[in-house]
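Help needed: design a sequence for this.
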């Protein structure tokens, strides 16, 4: 997930954050805001750097597939099952 100034002023300008979200807090917050927990991602390698908790506006969050140079494509499809006799 890309978090920039649209989600929170602390990530404005060149302080954007790529976050691999691991959980969303279900505790009540201000309307339209959410606490996210995950790992900051190195944009060059796609590797996790540090665990982070972020408070952000839901409407400003951008769910994007980050691409890394030289990384093999991800296979997010579930395996197909075959029925017997087919």
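Sure. Designed sequence:
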């Amino acid at each position: 997930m890309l978090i920039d100034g649209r989600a929170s002023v602390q990530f404005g300008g060149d302080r954007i954050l790529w976050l691999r979200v691991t959980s969303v807090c279900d505790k009540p917050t201000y309307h339209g805001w959410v606490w996210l927990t995950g790992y900051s991602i190195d944009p060059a390698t796609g590797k996790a750097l540090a665990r982070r908790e972020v408070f952000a506006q839901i409407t400003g969050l951008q769910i994007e597939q980050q691409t890394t140079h030289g990384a093999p494509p991800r296979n997010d499809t579930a395996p197909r099952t075959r029925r017997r006799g087919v």
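Residues 69-79 have pLDDT under 50 and may be disordered.
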